[in-house]
User: Fold this.
Amino acid sequence: MLNYNHKDADKGGDRYEPLPVGEYDAVIAAVDEDVSKTSGDPMYKVTLEVYSGNQKRPLWDYIVMTEKMVWKLKQYARAMGAEAEFDNEAFDLNAYEGNGLRVNLSIRNDPKYGNQNNVKSILPKPGASIKKRGVSAPSDRPGGAGTPTDPGRHVAVSEDDIPF
Assistant:
């Protein structure tokens, strides 16, 4: 068992003061599919890395798949340049982990945790190079744009096959 002092828990060692209201650069660090504890509806739990000056802060955004929340998924799709995928109900936020965007943050007062940042909206990041996981760059695709890569294809190479 590791030693600890239970009184240290009240010091809030890894709590952050909320960032000021405004727009920030961010990266989609992780996307998890989960179920809302309150409604039982499926949801995305998005872990963002938000940049302010030389600081990188984690921030979580939750998108419950209900009529009232699908607007936020559309904002993510728009920021990734994937509105056509969204309109065809084929947008998978998981495929866009690691990409940059802009977040518009507000501050909300949570009765349990105090003041916290809240993702008010998602915006495209000007000049960002968006990469969809599982799809190589257009110049690398043998079948042209939109052709997925085949991660299962592997050709074994022995030292005898190398000409130098």
Q: What stands out?
A: Confidence is low (pLDDT under 50) at residues 138-158. The beta strands are 22-35, 42-52, 55-64, 100-110, 114-123.
